[in-house]
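Suppose you are handed only these lines of text.
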Amino acid sequence: MALDGEHLIQRVEQHFSKLGTIGIQPDGSITRIAWSDEESAAMAYIRAEGEAFGLRGSYDGVGNLLLSTPGQPSERYLVGSHLDSVPHGGNFDGAAGVVAALEAIRMLMQTDGQQRCGASLVAWRGEEYTFNAVYKGSAAAFGLGEPQILHNVYGDQSLRDAIRQQGFDPHFIDEGRPSFQPEFIDSIAGYVEPHIEQGTVLERERRDIGIVTSIAGDRRYLVVLEGRFDHSGATPMGSTYRGDVNLAMAYVQVRLDELAQQRRAQGRLFTQTVGIVNADPEIDKKYPAVHGNSVTKVSGIGYFTFDLMAAEDEFLDTYSAEVLRLIWKTAREFNVKAFIEMTDSSRGLPTLDADLSRDLERAAAAAGASSQSIASGAGHDAVMVGLADKPSGGEIPVGMLFVPCRAGVSHSKEEFASAEHVAKAAEVLAGALIERCIDPAGQAHG
Ligand SMILES: [Zn+2]
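From them, the structure of the protein bound to zinc ion can be written out as follows.
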């Protein structure tokens, strides 16, 4: 068993060193954009690796990769993650889950006994926020994609053209038609996504594995404040004379933080972040007057982004309304105008499947992996699977496994998860799949 474990770690290392060459940039970061040649090359590598040990590879209508155990089982478990990255991202966000799933299915296939169900690896296209949208491949798989995203542009290419250029069909998204076959969706008995944590909880607590309890959704806003450019010496202070955007923005930020602290003290679980203040080249193009701010002027215009993440959709809506009211009220007080645009919204999953989570926990204990429950503050493809309806009725149970990543860093060339930890996740996932799919009593026939 120890020898096997070593081979597993070596294979995991090999996968990462190969994937780490696909989309590598001069600065050492990885760029594998949705429906790019690099994303397709990563898919082709994983497909070849799976087919080499007997999985059947195929692409769905929009290019999500499926690698299935042979046969036509009436039930199968779907396991995997995505292979795209943000621009100048790392080699582990998404890829770690695909690698763990690939090795888990290999272990499942090597286990003696009668198979009660099958397994399919999925590598989703375009999970990351590019083309102004997330979960693009997983949404399309279940007919949940928004047709208007096909017009969104990355670089100088529309999403529609990017999908076509890789040889796939954007009409599935146009028509809201699932790119997975209906019979295939009906056969999915559960979905498990391994993924790097993108936070520091597991590292701090020295755990090998996190069993995810909920996944956050988001509401993202661009807030533009408009006041008046005036001479800094000649214009008296106070809102009677000034419409000082920088001052208003400072108060808005402090009050938003106070509001968040109040709600958190009441037990609400969420995060909010002002990510950009007057420093985005794309937004600057829309509001060039922001360059008119200077040392000797009262600030006349400014903007900031506001990102809110929580698992409960209803809370995201009610809290967003509070946020917007607070911004408008504060802006009025400082004699400036506030224009607020929602730039993104995605749903979360407040609960993951209890039975799957329990089986993953048990499998972790059996594999000698320390584990703990953990809420996901980031969004994942698992949300789309959890929101999908089966053609024959019913939902797909969803579970997620978190792998520790160094210093919680992601979306950067510094992103790193150890081969040992990814191998552990593969073992845990394999344990849960074997428990559900292999009948050891049927060994004689296996
Ligand atoms: Zn990811």
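What can we learn from it? The mean pLDDT is 96. The longest strand covers residues 217-226.
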